[in-house]
Every structure is written in C-alpha cells, then in structure tokens.
Amino acid sequence: MAESARNAVLAAIERATHQVRDADPAAAHDALTRGYRQRGGASLPECLERLEERLEDYGVRVTRTTADGLPAAVAAWVAERGVQRWVVPPGVPEVWLSSVRGVEAIADDAGPRELDGADAVVTSCAVAVAETGSIVLDAGPGQGRRAATLVPDVHLCVVPASLVVELVPEAVAGLADAVTGGRPLTWISGPSATSDIELVRVAGVHGPRTLAVLLVEDA
Amino acid sequence: MSGASDRVPLPYLREAAVALRDTQQRRNLATATTTIRAKRAAVTAEMPDWEALRVAGAAIKAHTLANLGHYLERLEERVMAAGGHVHWARGAREANDLVRGLVRGTGAREVIKVKSMTTDEIGLNRALAEDGVRAIETDLAELIVQLAGEAPSHILVPAIHKNRAEIRTLFLRAFGIAPSDLSDDPAELAGAARRYLRERFLATGVAVSGANFAVAETGSVCVVESEGNGRMCTTLPHTLISVMGIEKVLPRWRDLEVFLQLLPRSSTAERMNPYTSFWTGVHDGDGPRAFHLVLLDNGRSRTLSDDVGRETLRCIRCSACLNVCPVYERVGGHAYGSVYPGPIGAILNPQLRDVERDEALPYASTLCGACFEVCPVAIDIPRILVELRHRTVERKRERSPLPYGSAEDAAMVGAAKVFARWSRYEAAQRLGRLGQGPFVRDGAIRSLPGPLAGWSAVRDLRALPRQTFREWWRARGAGGGATPGEHEGEARDG
Ligand code: SF4
Hints:
- The complex is a heterodimer.
- By secondary structure, chain A is of the alpha/beta class.
- Helices cover 30% and strands 21% of the residues of chain A.
- Chain B is α/β, with parallel strands linked by helices.
- In chain B, α10 runs parallel beside α11 (186-203).
- The termini of chain B are far apart.
- At the A-B interface, α1, α2, α5, α6 and α7 of A face α3, α4, α5, β1 and α9 of B.
- β9 of chain A pairs antiparallel with β9 (275-280) of chain B, so a sheet runs across the interface.
C-alpha cells in the first residue's frame, strides 16, 4: 500500500512535469539567478551596533563586555536575576563561569521535568546575524541539546564578536557543515512571542520568556 | 483544528453575506490587516534587494516544481539515511490513515499539534478522534479556535475574529480558572495558556507538525514559528510525525538563505520570526527517537500539470496577499470554506479540490493586483484568477443544456445584438424603463426575478433614468431642452 502510493504520486508528478523538467537539475539549479546581497559591506563595529539595536527591538537586553570582563559580567547577571539552578551544557568554557558562586548546575541531558525546574540556561552560539537580530544554535560545543535551551524560562547567550555576520546568506553559508553533518539548528530572534490576541505583541509564550545577550567585543 | 470539518461550509456567496453582517469580525480584521500591512511595507522597504529576493524565490520554486519528482526522491533518501521514516499519501484519507496507524502504534491517547494548514486540509483531528485520540492544538490562536469549536479565519492569525473578552470567557471555561483570577489583558491570557500547555508538552509522547520547508540535499525539515510551541513539539516528545505537502521541498540548504528572508518579512512583518527549527531525521540523545515524514499529494500533482497550477504551487503560505485584499478584509476567512482563504485560497482551492462549490472563488476578487505586488514568490494571482474564471465559464458551457451554453452566455449574445444597432439599443432602454417599475425602490434595483435573482442578490443597480442622454440631446436640438445639470446626473446613464 505504502509502496503503491509512493509510485502513484511519483508517476503523477512525472506525467505532469515530463515536458518541463530539466535533464540535469543540478546544473539548472546552479544557473539560477541570485541577484540579492550575498556578502555584507558593514564593518565589525557597525555589525555589532546593528545586532544590538535589532535585539533590543525584540525586547532583548544586550550587555557589551570584553573577554577579560566576561566572568564578572556573567556573575553580575546571575546575581541580578537571582539564579539558583541553571543548565550548563558541556563545552561552555569554564572561565566564563569562574566568578559565579553558589549556583547549582544541571546537566543538559536532564529530563524535561528537571529542566523545567531550572531558573535559566547559559550557552554559546554558532553564529549571529546583525541584519535580523538572530542567534543560531547548531548543537555544537557549549550550545546544549535543544530541550535545554527551550524549557528553562531564561536564556543567557554569550555572543563573541567573531561569530557575528551581517546578512542571512552569510550565516546560512557558515552553517552548511553543521546541517550536512545532520545537526539540528535553532534560529532564535528574541524571546518567544505571540500577537494572536488582537495583534497585541506579548513576549513569552512557550519558549524562554527572557533572552539576554552578553556581546563580547574582542572575542 | 477539528472545526473546519465540523460544520459544512455554505457556498462562498452565502458565507460572505453572513460574514458581512458580523461587525465585530469586520472591525477586528480591519485593524489587524491595516497594522500588518504598514509593518510589512516598512520591513520590506528597508531591504535594498527585496525585489531580487522575490525574483530568486520565484525562480527557485519554479525550478523545484518543474523537477519535483527528482527532489522528492532525494529528500526521501536523505531523511531515511538520517534515521527517519518517509510515507506517501495520495489523498486526505490515505494520509489520515497513515497518521492514525502511526499514533496507534505508540499507544498514545493524546497528541500535541503545532499549527499546520496541511493537517487542517486533510481534517486530521477528526480522523484521530475516530480512534479516541485527542489532538491538542498548541498554537495560541489554534487553541482559541479549537476551544470555541470553530475554524481558523486567517492563515497566520487564525483567531483574528475573536476579541480579548471572548477569549477570556473561553479560557475561564476550558482551564477551570476563577473569573477573579484572570483579566482580559493579552499578556495574562497568554500566561494562562502557557501554564495549561506546559504540562501537556512535558507529558505527551507524540507530536504532529506540518513543515514550512524541507531540504532535498540534506533531508532537513523546517518549522518557522513565534511562540515556541513548534520547538516544544519537535523536541520533547519521543515520536514526531510531520505532514508536508509535496510542493514544500527545496533543492539545497543554500536556498534557505532566500526563504528565511522572504517568509518572516512577508508574513508576520518581522525581520525574523522568533524561532526557526531545522532537524534532520533523528539526533542521538537530542529530540524525538522516531521521526515520520508524510508526503501529501491531495490534488497537487494534478495541479502541477500546467503553468497556472505550477505558479500557484510556489506559494509559501505567508498570508501577505490576505492582508492586502479588499475583499478578504470585508468578508473574512470563513467565507472561503477552506483552510486556504483570501486570494491564495481563491486560486488554490479550485485547482486542488476540483469541485463545483469552489467555482465562485475566482470571482471573490476585484482584480486590483495588490496581492501580486506583495507576493514574495511573485505569483501573478490576478492573471490566474482570470484564467480560472475562463475555465469555469467553459465548464458551465459544457454542463449547460442551453443552445448558447449557460444563461450567462445567452445574455452576452443577446447583449451583443442589442448593442450592435442604436435602434435596438434605444428600444431596449424604453422597454427596460417600463419593465423595471415593480423592482425599483429608492432609485435602485436591489433584486430581480427568475434567472437574474442570483446576479442581483449581490449587486445593487441604479434604476434606468426617466430620460436618457440621447433623448435629452435630441429634445435639446429640437429647441428648449433642460440642461444636464437639472437632471442630477440622470442623463449620464443614457
Ligand atoms: S500567494 Fe504569495 S502572498 Fe499569498 S500566501 Fe502564497 S506566497 Fe504569500
């Protein structure tokens, strides 16, 4: 039954397209016109500024810091939010958390209910896009399993300036290896939101209601 | 949503008449569409290469559809290589039976769902209910319409026809909250839904989703969303079933660089939507342990066989065409009797479903062209509407017993004869003036008898004037006619 449905659908598609399909689809795809911007022209400081501005537009608090100042910035944030238990995925550099005291760390492979009991999660990222204010996680080191960045109510993301690109096509190109390698991606642009009730934007429905970014200017 | 199939939709014209009397809906719709129109205009205007992105988006889609078989086979191969399962369904029933079988295999009594027009199209919730399986919609708006026992009225904002007070009433009843504990503030209402659904996300083992895109080259499937319920559904349960129309596949990963720009700016009018998830088969220790991709035809391969159909299938369901449509703004989504409303519904439904009741849909447009202008994949909706109208006329002619074809054809032939000779034309006007007597009220004809009843039901005609322009002109030539001004425009109709 399954096999026959498959063959029937493919045969119907073949009947419908035999006069228009390409002999060499890959070559035809290569030849498609892409007249849009593939590479940005902004400088790094301009990119950082735009990223910050776009993120703030989504209601994200962005704090600038330096590699040296990062441990203190993380500790200050933890104290201010009153975080007591948080998820720390493997690969988050120990030095980032070196000034944090008295916070219980939960492994990122904890069950969903345990994750639900965490106050926050701290991660790195794979790439950030200035033009759209997006942060992408690709399951690489320091980024955690998908549930770990989803269930806790607060997500603190450390974004080194070297991972910031200007345009979406630049980010997509940089993620090609991760996707081809079968890793899952999560693009995050601000905290979860809905405008379903009278088009009033409400931040925070099911994902983390708070997203905070520490932008490391010299890393 | 089970609602769409719970109630048999009336033909478009009658649904539209009902909807036009609903002033609450019209007010909500007008506010919503005006707001989103302005936002969309701003976020597309700030892109210096917006037109180039549209051109590329249209070209990639056209290329994919022309080579659809090739890309679907690659997708299937890649998904399976990554540990996923792929199923094919010719129609709605086959797809529903497949999903029912998969759910039965897990023993689950409840499934969580993330908004998916494709599962609405096949009426999946109803099919699951036959097995006693409850499908819980997790998108806030879908949850609202599900609790109300209704159908979504907008692709993107399905509960656009409900205001905050109505939503509060629904939540109080469904979640068992005391009235004093919940105001009608949207943030509080969203918070109540969060608490209610969080438990479902943590406890439910099976999720059903749609898909916005899938990449043939890598086998990756993509869900674009705002609330995080998509991430919950594609991450927490042990089994994930995604139902995807066959036209959603894209050739390569790189193609996403175009669609991740076109879709959010066109749909929610944002630079980027809050969350976009990609997964490839199953990932060890991260996310569902079983992944099933159901590839749905349901009229798509038939639609693919001509230019107009292929152009229609480029649609990425952004809903920009709905928000600019003057007809949609007034009648709302339910009138289209389908999960696909508005301009896209007017061209998609008649081709996908091939049923007589959709024949009125291509007429639900003023051909103003606004939809074409905003469409991120440059679908020439007005041109397709005209082509589909032409097909409807042809089909009516085939069905009609009249020698001239349909009554409309006969009227056209008659009109041509009358207009051809001035003597016949003037005689017809005099006849009309006598004949209209019983139907004129306040200078207008609002309903006509017999075969014209349907035509006049949706149009008001100005009554024929006492004196035509030609009559006035002749009287004036014979000396001493009144000036046109004294006739208050009546003469214009001559
Ligand atoms: S037809 Fe175009 S504008 Fe309308 S929903 Fe589809 S992609 Fe969007």
